[in-house]
Specification:
The complex is a heterotrimer. By secondary structure, chain A is of the alpha/beta class. Chain A has seven helices and four strands, in the order E-H-E-H-E-H-E-H-H-H-H. Chain A has helices at 18-27, 49-57, 78-95, 113-130, 134-138, 142-145, 147-157; strands spanning 9-14, 36-41, 62-67, 103-107. In chain A, strands 2-1-3-4 form a four-stranded parallel beta sheet, sandwiched between helices. Chain C is built from 18 helices and 34 strands. In chain C, helix 1 packs across helix 5 (109-127) and helix 6 (150-161) packs parallel to helix 15 (549-567).
């Protein structure tokens, strides 16, 4: 048993390409790290950026977002919309100092079972190196962050 | 100045408008004036000092519902008005818009086309100070940026003045009020404040006029207008100036470039 | 309060070999709201399904989570089982313990823990599932077929023979398409027109088919079962009701020197013309760009000579709209235009022609009545060179694909040439011979062995003229790249098949996708070859990719079968995984502010404007509404909506949020 840090990673994938690709990884019996859990969406266009933030706020150390390659979208253009969204979202997060190395975007087709295993393994390795993402979660803890100040305020209020 | 008063008065006298939204002299800067009749128009002023984005009042139902409106609009207000048209929030026939021409004359802008032409011909007022601040933040390390913004946003107490000041924030139910699910932490933690700002800025992407009213409105001076300013810049760099229909996030080009998707 | 049943499948040993299924079931039973949690060897087996059904009945379950294989495999199975036990099928979800867990991880605690998390995620999602009912869409049982080539003809006849109304739209003055231009067809060498023209006549006479020639689709609105098609009937300048097709007009027309499209420019036609003698309908049209009256304002000879007074110069284009239930797109292909090969001298040398031009030369109805003659001087070519892959399989020129039909028609051309010019010598330069098809390889062998066609494997570098001969310079790669030089009398280019003119525009009108070469894209390359990404619009023939006649006809019947299948019910049943705009509380309330940015984001034009009115009938506000017949359930609008006024059934905001939170809060 080693004491290596095991990152928690959520994968947001579309039903038609990456989910099917991950199915192929399974049927091909390609082994990969068990840190990643997949959430199935109809399309990358459906993936709300807030869900990524919520994942971080609630203890995820990393996130994978994956869907169909450009021009392969089951719904013709969901991934193109998603791509625009991620270009802006990523730039905004970076500007605010939120660690964008923790979000891995990829296109994995239904035929790319091996690529999926690869994406998972490299993401797990890089997040493991970055360590747990505590800064973001901690920012959500209102009471803990303001304990001192709140205590003072209480003192004042209580006379 | 007299010119605008004359024109606004004329509109009232001809019965073409019910309210004129403009500026009057304020203590330091001009402040909004809502003229409900011809007499009240005589307090109107309109000059380079008038920078507040009056377009915000065009979607305030309590103020303008069912009314025909005249408005004096700064460069950024005109940008907002153009976007509001695209988003089906304004009707050409019940709106009279006046801008300031390059030689500081009152210029009537009678249609969305004319407003678009004006925006094409007129360079946006420079934002040297904001550009400099953004440059400073860009030059920081990621950790420093995090420290900067988490410190700034820890002060926010969610008064939503930024939302109230913004012409594009006209939703009847804002995402912060959506509680199934609770997308944004309702209490004022640093994280909840960040979530709100990230949502606000993402919602502004490609729609924002970059007027900076959000930052001006913030009672504790958090430079949140830098977020929208930066977003406007990012949009421009990646997708060009503006799309004809919809906005940047509701449209796409197959050849959009990115460098981070494996 | 939710009563969720969790059913963990061992899948024989496929799951249980690495996941401790009993522990998963045990842990799942501790999740709030889980009423029953069991594991079993094969959940999909009869006893397994019975177990689920009984639990639903006995425990009054409100939701079911089956932890087994991929939902892409067995979701329909388990949803059906739930439905049979009286639970709404959409209250059943699957979590993937096999493909996404047991098969990809080693046996161990971590793997079991992941499995437990996966179950937890889906339990939390399922708690928020809502019963959904399939969507019923009425169907208008009339088909629109676009394109009157062999694909459109076959499709129209099949649909019409099944008893449904068909509207066939053809942009040219006659139906028949490219097949009507061909001389003989491979691999049987039967005459193309002999087999095609009876079908053309059948179309014209069929009581269920309305034929519009010289017409184009102007606009297509609506959705599967309920399209509204606007068709532009281009002014023919000849009233078809009065015209008897006697032909006096075109025999008297003074403008006689227009290159005939039907003869690929090798023959001439008049300004008022029927494209070819067997045209259907056999009534002329006036080509306005070449008619002296239209260009210079005088002439009107045809009007003077017409015995029935059918000529009508002033009639404008007409528009008709039709209610349509399904569309078959059969717009065919074009051959690559000649200036593409400057090195082969097409356009520069009259005797360098395309394969389609050769068809006209070889055709008994062609400009030479079937005799092979040089376009330049009318002499019989004694030495002829066929160049295969002229444009095809040439990534450098942007056409990396194989046009598929050229190998075969080139063999046919060489064979026809040998049959007609007994002392002639023919050469075929080729890259590979692709003769995959019934009797195809035998056909090519016959050309080589019986008819003595010389096949040279290699590409032609250049064709140039010298002393009245066409010098063809190439290499023979089978002889180690030995240079070959042939003094030919004629060169025939097997030019690539490309998308038909205006394919892109048409695709945009119909909102179907197309590939980089403007061929229309099928919905799935293997399993949905005749469907498009827009429900209710089907494809057949060479508009999808170059293909030969048998394949085209097969595909056309396939598309027709899809249409007939669709029309066999009066209503269409669709998965209820679609977007909806909230209309909370009373009817008058929606949080939608009507910015309609979702409208531009929707790939299916499924967003419509809905006016909310008060009791006095005044419009209070205009909000978005989703047409469930058009919505395919991608959910792009959902994550795009700022006020979260639009949501998608089955993958709602609450459901996805709960699923994400479940794993992390543990």
């Amino acid at each position: 048993m080693n004491n290596e840090f095991e990152p928690k990673i959520l994968a947001f994938v579309c039903n038609w390409c990456t989910y099917a690709g991950a199915d192929l990884t399974g049927t091909s019996r390609i082994k990969y790290a068990s840190n990643v859990k997949i959430v199935r969406f109809p399309c990358t266009g459906r993936i709300d950026f807030m869900l990524l933030l919520k994942a971080f706020a609630n203890g995820s150390d990393g996130v994978i977002v994956s869907g169909c390659h450009p021009n392969d979208c089951h719904y013709t253009s969901g991934n193109f919309h998603a791509r625009r969204r991620w270009i802006l979202f990523r730039s905004l997060l970076d500007f605010m100092g939120i660690d964008i190395r923790r979000i891995q975007f990829s296109w994995v087709s239904a035929a790319e079972g091996a690529k999926w295993a690869d994406i998972v393994n490299t993401t797990v390795a890089s997040i493991r190196e970055l360590g747990p993402y505590t800064e973001y979660q901690r920012a959500g803890d209102f009471l803990a962050n303001n304990e001192e100040e709140l205590a003072k305020e209480m003192e004042v209020n209580n006379g | 100045m007299d010119e605008l008063r004359t024109k606004a008065k004329e509109l009232f006298e001809k019965g073409e408008i019910d309210i004129f939204i403009g500026y009057e002299e304020g203590t330091r800067n001009p402040r909004p004036l809502f003229a409900n009749n011809a007499d009240e128009t005589q307090k109107l002023v309109f000059n380079d000092m008038c920078t507040g984005n009056l377009a915000v009042y065009l979607t305030r139902k309590d103020l303008v519902k069912g009314k025909r409106v005249g408005i004096s609009a700064s460069y950024y207000a005109l940008k907002s008005i153009a976007q509001l048209f695209v988003e089906n929030q304004l009707k050409e026939e019940s709106l009279k818009v006046f801008g300031l021409s390059s030689d500081r004359k009152i210029q009537a802008l009678n249609s969305l086309e004319e407003i678009k032409q004006y925006l094409k011909d007129t360079p946006p007022p420079p934002k040297l100070k904001d550009d400099e601040l953004i440059k400073q933040i860009d030059e920081m390390s990621s950790a420093e940026r995090w420290a900067f913004w988490s410190d700034e946003l820890s002060k926010c107490f969610k008064c939503y003045a930024c939302r109230a000041a913004c012409p594009m924030c006209y939703c009847t139910k804002c995402i912060v009020e959506v509680n199934r699910p609770q997308w944004i932490q309702p209490w004022a933690s640093t994280l909840g404040n960040m979530e709100w700002q990230i949502n606000r800025v993402m919602h502004m992407a490609g729609r924002c006029s970059d007027c900076g009213s959000c930052g001006t409105a913030c009672p504790i001076g958090i430079p949140i207008h830098l977020l929208t300013h930066k977003m406007s810049e990012t949009v421009k760099i990646n997708f060009g100036d503006s799309s004809e229909k919809g906005n940047v996030l509701s449209t796409f080009k197959p050849e959009d470039k990115e460098s981070f998707i494996l | 309060m939710s009563k969720i049943g969790v059913f963990v499948c061992h899948c024989g040993e496929n799951i249980s070999a690495t996941v401790d299924c009993e522990k998963v079931a045990e842990e799942a039973s501790k999740i709030t709201g889980v009423e029953v949690s069991v594991d079993y060897k094969y959940m999909c087996s009869d006893p397994g399904q019975t177990m689920i059904k009984e639990a639903i009945k006995e425990k009054g379950l409100t939701g079911v989570v089956v932890a087994a294989c991929s939902p892409r495999m067995h979701e329909p199975t388990f949803r059906k089982a739930c439905s049979e036990a009286g639970l709404n099928p959409y209250m059943c979800e699957m979590t993937n313990l096999r493909e996404h867990c047991s098969w990809v991880h080693e046996k161990g605690d971590q793997t079991t823990e992941k499995a437990i998390d996966l179950v937890r995620m889906l339990v939390e999602k399922t708690k928020l599932n809502k019963p959904l009912n399939s969507i019923k869409v009425p169907i208008h049982k009339k088909a629109l077929v676009i394109g009157g080539g062999i694909a459109g003809i076959q499709s129209s006849l099949d649909i019409a023979n099944a008893g449904h109304q068909v509207i066939l739209v053809e942009k040219d003055p006659s139906i028949g398409g490219h097949m009507s231009q061909l001389s003989e067809t491979f691999p049987t060498l039967d005459c193309s027109q002999c087999i095609l023209t009876p079908r053309m006549v059948e179309v014209a006479q069929h009581p269920n088919i309305t034929l519009y020639t010289y017409a184009e689709l102007e606009k297509l609105e609506g959705f599967i079962g309920n399209f509204k098609a606007t068709i532009r009937l281009k002014a023919k300048s000849v009233d078809p009701k009065l015209c008897t097709g006697c032909g006096v007009c075109y025999s008297k027309c003074p403008t006689k020197k227009i290159p005939s499209e039907f003869n690929e420019g090798l023959g001439l036609r008049t300004a008022i013309y029927t494209p070819f003698p067997q045209a259907v309908p056999n009534k002329p049209v006036i080509d306005k760009t070449n008619c002296t009256y239209y260009t210079k304002g005088k002439c009107k000879v045809c009007q003077k000579v017409c015995p029935t007074g059918a000529i009508d110069f002033d009639r404008p284009d007409e528009f008709i709209t039709e209610d349509i239930g399904a569309v078959v797109t059969a717009t065919g292909f074009n051959v690559l235009k000649p200036n593409f090969f400057p090195e082969y001298g097409y356009g520069k040398y009259k005797d360098v022609i395309t394969g389609l031009q050769f068809e006209r030369l070889a055709s008994a109805s062609g400009p030479t009545l079937g005799a092979i003659r040089r376009p330049s001087d009318g002499t019989e070519p004694k030495k002829i060179v066929f160049i295969a892959c002229a444009g095809s399989r040439d990534p450098a020129k942007g056409l990396p694909y194989c046009s598929k039909i050229c190998c075969m028609y080139t063999a046919k051309h060489a064979m026809l040439y040998q049959h007609k010019v007994h002392d002639g010598e023919s050469y075929v330069f080729y890259m590979d011979i692709r003769a995959a098809g019934k009797n195809y390889e035998e056909f090519v062998r016959r050309a080589i062995e019986d008819d003595g066609v010389n096949y040279v494997r290699g590409r032609v570098a250049r064709v140039y003229e010298k002393d009245g001969k066409l010098i063809v310079k190439g290499v023979d790669t089978l002889l180690g790249g030995k240079p070959v030089e042939i003094e030919a009398d004629m060169v025939v280019l097997a030019s690539a098949g490309v998308a038909s003119h205006g394919a892109e525009e048409l695709a945009q009108k119909m909102h179907i996708s197309y590939d980089p070469y403007k061929f229309f894209a099928e919905a799935h390359p293997k399993l949905k070859p005749v469907e498009t990404n827009t429900a209710g619009i089907f494809l057949c023939g060479a508009c999808q990719a170059p293909k030969d006649i048998p394949e085209t006809v097969g595909m056309a019947s396939g598309a027709a079968a899809k249409v007939i299948g669709l029309f066999s019910n009066s209503e269409l049943t669709r998965e209820p995984v679609v977007a909806v705009v909230n209309r909370i509380a009373s009817h008058e309330v929606s949080t939608c502010v009507g910015c309609f940015l979702c409208e531009t984001a929707c790939p299916y034009q499924a967003i419509v404007h809905e006016e909310i009115k008060n009791r006095a009938g005044e419009v209070i506000k205009t909000v978005a509404q989703v047409n469930p017949g058009l919505c395919q359930g991608c959910g792009t609008c959902v994550s795009f909506c700022r006020s979260k006024s639009i949501d998608i059934q089955g993958f709602s905001n609450e459901q996805m949020y709960a699923e994400v939170m479940a794993v992390l809060e543990a």
